[in-house]
Write a structure and sequence with these properties.
The strands form two sheets. A five-stranded parallel beta sheet has the order 3-2-1-4-5, with helices on both faces. Strands 6, 7, 8 and 9 form a four-stranded mixed beta sheet that branches. 42% of the residues lie in helices and 19% in strands. The relative contact order is 0.12. The chain has eleven helices and nine strands. A hairpin with a 7-residue loop joins β7 and β8. The protein is of the alpha/beta class and 310 residues long. The structure holds xanthosine-5'-monophosphate (XMP). Xanthosine-5'-monophosphate binds next to loops. The site of xanthosine-5'-monophosphate has 16 residues, from loops.
Length: 310
């Protein structure tokens, strides 16, 4: 790919579209939104307002880490604490699509809608990539971030226009652009993380306690499997329970799934054949999390499984 040409073209489009106005974007710290932030900041400078929405379902220490990283690149990011709003919206919901929908509505309507009004922004920039569009259009998954492809008019529904400068790229292309733009390797090479965040990995209700359990398991898996260089690795909290024994007492505990896959662009994936020693260490550390007494390894490729669990 010709990165110089892509960046130049997108810069010109952003400048010509936003003109003297204000654009706003939400940074999650994932590869896509990070690359978008740097690209848009280059094009728009002070006309870009970047917010980080703390939605209560981010990984351990993530909001602070992301803001610090971008501050080092002299890109200001404002944290919006929307934890209560998201937890309230997710309360009592167990259906995967309803969960995604609750997150979409809270994100766009309650949080962005408000932020846009406060800043006077007329454009919302979004890090949607080609795979998101294809899978949504094919009905494989309802991506939370591509309203217009779904025929929802964001201007009408939420009061602003959405621009998606990365919509022609796949994940590997986004990484190339990130590298070209000088993003640090630990961001460019970061494993993908879904928009619905940890909620995409909690089967059943998303409660503060269940988020804490999954957050702890996620931190363990990300640390233990970083050296594999796999495309994606993460933990999932199941709704089922299983009997176990702790301190000589039987307990009906929670089950964590570990998933580690290889893929080029997430359209297809194979399962990494992890070393037994690593799996054993993962099981030991994960079952030390309070309330978790089982750890299982997911052996399913995509297809027939998807990468995430909701
Ligand atoms: P699935 O589960 O559909 O995931 O096989 C394919 C890739 O997309 C990521 N993913 C998402 N990314 N918003 C995102 O930005 C989402 O709603 C979403 N759902 C899944 C997933 O992590 C994998 O890399």
């Amino acid at each position: 790919m010709n990165c110089e040409k892509f960046v130049l073209e997108q810069t010109l489009i952003l400048k010509a579209t936003v003109k003297n106005g204000i654009a706003i974007n939400a940074l999650s710290g994932g590869v896509d939104s990070s690359v978008l932030t740097v690209l848009a900041h280059r094009a728009l400078g002070k006309q870009l307002k970047t917010i980080l929405v703390d939605n209560a379902i981010m990984r351990e220490g993530e909001p602070e880490r992301v803001i610090r990283t971008f501050a080092q690149m002299r890109i200001p990011v404002e944290r919006i604490d929307a934890r209560k709003l998201f937890l309230k919206a997710l309360e009592g919901i167990t259906d995967p699509e309803e969960k995604r929908n609750a997150i979409t509505q809270t994100f766009y309507k309650d949080v962005f809608g408000k932020a846009v009004k406060q800043t006077g922004a007329t454009y919302l920039l979004h890090g949607t990539i080609l795979t998101d569009i294809e899978e949504t259009v094919a009905g494989i998954k309802r991506q939370h971030n591509i309203l217009s492809q779904l025929g929802i008019n964001p201007q009408k529904a939420y009061g602003y226009k959405v621009l998606e400068p990365l919509a022609t790229l796949r994940k590997n292309g986004v990484r190339e652009i990130g590298k070209y733009l000088g993003l640090p390797p630990f961001i460019v090479n970061r494993i993908p993380f879904p928009g619905p965040a940890l909620a995409a990995r909690i089967v059943g209700e998303v409660t503060p306690q269940r988020i804490d359990t999954l957050r702890a398991a996620t931190a363990i898996v990300e640390k233990e499997l970083a050296h594999t260089g796999a495309f994606q690795y993460f933990a999932v909290l199941l709704e089922d329970r299983a009997t176990g024994i702790r301190n000589n007492k039987r307990e009906f505990g929670q089950i964590i799934v570990v998933r580690c896959i290889d893929s080029i662009d997430a359209r297809k994936a194979t399962v990494r054949e992890l070393d037994w020693k690593i799996l054993r260490r993962l099981a030991k550390r994960i079952t030390a999390i309070p309330g978790v007494n089982r750890c299982v390894y997911d052996l399913t490729p995509k297809p027939p499984a998807t990468v995430e669990y909701i």
